[in-house]
Design goal:
alpha+beta, Rossmann fold, BirA Bifunctional Protein, domain 2, 5-stranded mixed beta barrel, binds adenosine-5'-triphosphate, binds magnesium ion
């Protein structure tokens, strides 16, 4: 098998190729070769700088961070603070894609707010106070004035909207962002499930009427359930009624995923509709289950807008406060929860939608190397995401690493494959093995 220029969908390759053409006169064939070459370099495991390790760091007690560190997805900086390495960052990008798509379907527009926050804005709602909000990180500018590091963005975003919305005709409007939040958490023993720095998707809806606000709240509830279904947690994630705290209308809704590592206890009230109540809201009739809060949505009514001074004029020219609701998903917490729930004794088991690669290709012998190279080039030329284990290590080590890293499909090329041309394919989640020709594999992966 060989790869011909006409087989290659250059447009598919463009987004993952970082090298621009060297000269304007470079021929398409050369350009293609350079593109394939840079992709090969990017996805060969021999070039991946991260290494797997047998043991997690001694001070890491959580299962999610232990597995993610061992498999080379994240690096621990200190308790509750983690960096994301190439494999881990690919998972985050996939999660952002799934979540972003659902937010855009709701009509939300993506933005990015600053991390440094204005004290005066938070004082308007009494949330600068460390007693009211006990997770603030704060610092002082050289001129002596105080500054906050964003743990949430309702206040700054509400303030910012004052410059953009003034009439009922501007509403409703929704905005969202993927942003690093900083929180001075007391407990930071749950790996990336509870970080002191973590990535959150936060969305905010500004509406003219209570009806529009509630309508959006309901639509977002559905969109959230769709997100959790798409990332493999649909069966075990419940819309959970919870207290809204002092800042909101009486209640909020949490999205709780059943998980032993969870810090919350929920009581399922309707299995079909996926509804539950949080411990604080029940007199504990049924049996509670441990769960992780992967998302939380709040209806602030008009309270916050009144405090911030976010008013618009309605049809009759009257000044009215805007209805505000806010919608959070812990992106890194979601990644940690997937690892907690779906891993097995050998390692991580990624759902297809958020796996760092679609295929883990293992070349098992020197003799089969050329054939494995060809399969690799063919797969990537079809836009399939492949991590190619071309390392010069024992087969046992490659198998163990593949199980630990947890890519959904493992394709093995050994000497046996050379004779039969049948690829051995193993499903990471089910453990089933089958044989398939490359054309069928491509069809399956692109279908
Ligand atoms: P928790 O009750 O777990 O402390 P919270 O109710 O304070 O969380 P929200 O302000 O509702 O959290 O934040 C929105 C989402 O961000 C949460 O539902 C959760 O998924 C995620 N999140 C909150 N705190 C953290 C954290 N320290 N680390 C990782 N994710 C977090
Ligand atoms: Mg919450």
């Amino acid at each position: 098998m060989s790869v011909r220029t006409q087989d290659v969908r250059v447009h598919l390759l463009k987004p993952i190729c970082m090298n621009p053409p060297r000269t304007a006169t470079e021929s398409p064939r050369l350009l293609y070769r350079r593109r394939v070459f840079c992709i090969i370099a990017l996805m060969r495991q021999s070039k991946l700088f991260t290494k797997t390790r047998k043991e997690a760091p001694k001070d890491e007690v959580s299962k999610n961070a232990s597995l993610l560190i061992r498999a080379g997805f994240i690096h621990k900086e200190m308790a509750g603070v983690y960096s994301y390495l190439p494999l881990g960052w690919r998972v985050i990008q996939k999660l952002k894609k799934v979540i972003g798509e659902e937010m855009e379907k709701l009509g939300s527009q993506e933005i990015l707010m600053s991390t440094l926050q204005n004290k005066e804005i938070w004082e308007k709602t009494n949330r600068w106070d460390d007693v009211e909000v006990d997770v603030w990180f704060k610092s002082v500018f050289k001129n002596g004035s105080e500054v906050g590091f964003g743990w949430s963005h309702e206040e700054p975003i509400g303030e910012m909207m004052k410059s953009h919305i003034s009439s009922y005709q501007n509403l409703p409007v929704q905005v969202h962002q993927f942003q690093n939040k900083l929180r001075n958490e007391v407990r930071a023993k749950s790996g990336i499930i509870r970080g002191r720095e973590f990535i959150m998707k936060d969305m905010y809806c500004f509406a003219m009427t209570e009806e529009d606000n509630l309508d959006f709240y309901k639509k977002t509830t559905k969109a959230y359930l769709e997100i959790f279904r798409r990332v493999g947690l649909g069966d075990i994630t419940y819309v959970t009624s919870a207290s809204g705290g002092v800042f909101t209308d009486k209640f909020s809704h949490e999205f709780q995923t059943i998980c032993d590592a969870g810090e919350d206890t929920i009581y399922i009230t309707d299995e079909i509709k996926k509804e539950a109540v949080n411990e604080e809201m029940t007199d504990k009739k049924s049996e509670g289950q441990k769960a992780v809060e992967v998302g939380n949505i709040f209806n602030f009514g008009t309270k916050k807008s009144e405090e911030l001074g976010l008013f618009i004029t309605d049809k009759d020219g009257e000044k009215k406060p805007v209805f505000l609701s806010s919608y959070g998903i812990g992106v890194t917490r979601l990644m940690g929860t997937v690892v907690e729930v779906l891993s097995d004794e050998k390692g991580i088991v990624w759902p297809k939608t958020i796996a760092p690669f679609q295929v883990h290709l293992l070349s098992l012998s020197e003799k089969a190397k050329d054939f494995a190279d060809e399969i690799y080039t063919t797969l990537i030329s079809h836009g399939i995401e492949v991590l190619y284990d071309d390392r010069d290590v024992r087969a046992g080590e490659k198998f163990a690493d593949a199980d630990l890293i947890g890519i959904p499909m493992r394709v093995v090329i050994g000497e046996k494959t050379l004779a039969s041309k049948m690829l051995e394919v193993k499903d990471r989640a089910r453990g089933e093995t089958r044989e398939i020709i490359v054309e069928h594999l491509i069809k399956e992966l692109m279908g």
